[in-house]
Amino acid sequence: MQEKAVVLLSGGLDSATCLAMAKNDGYDCYALSFDYGQRHRCELEAAGAVARQAGVTNHVVIKIDLRQWNSSALTSDIAVPDAGTSEGIPVTYVPARNIIFLSFAVGWAETLGAKDIFIGVNSMDYSGYPDCRPQFIEAFQKCATIGTKAADGGWKFNIHAPLQTMTKTEIIRSGIALGVDYALTSSCYNPDAEGLACGKCDSCYLRKNGFEAAGIPDPTKYQPEL
Prior knowledge:
- The protein has a single domain (4-214), classed as 3-Layer(aba) Sandwich (Rossmann fold), CATH 3.40.50.620.
- Helix content is 36%, strand content 11%.
- The protein is built from seven helices and five strands.
């Protein structure tokens, strides 16, 4: 019998690759996405398309409203900065987002009888978010095990972050080898009403450079330059 795994799926390049890796490892995948009030909600359509292509067993979208905190450019009217203009933790950081998302994932995994959770964070080509660091993933894995029935059952949760030490170029090459259709994905923090990528934010910058360095055509649809 296949082991079950919950895979966090935003609809972006990284999470699509992470899902493909989980499938390739032989897991029966359950995809989990979040409608959290993000300005780039077109990523949810992308997540659905990626989940269908991957053939996941179930894809659940959880609706929560993080706009109430009004402290991130992704969940408020704060302007999304151009790539390379932020110092320290950027305003696109959503406070405790991965803690929240992983907590939901643990709850679903416990219900499914799954011990494995996949998340597409990495600490090489990233925007400086504290919840993408290896120390966080390691600490959360311990927390998830101690705070659930795993502690009494003598087993532990495994939080897989297979992209953790990969560059964007390496991620793209790995995804292509696994059959990921990156045309289905959406990574931009500030897309227009039609879902066209801005081409200016940190996420767009990393994505464009990753495809260029990999020598692979970028399938992203960008907004026309003014």
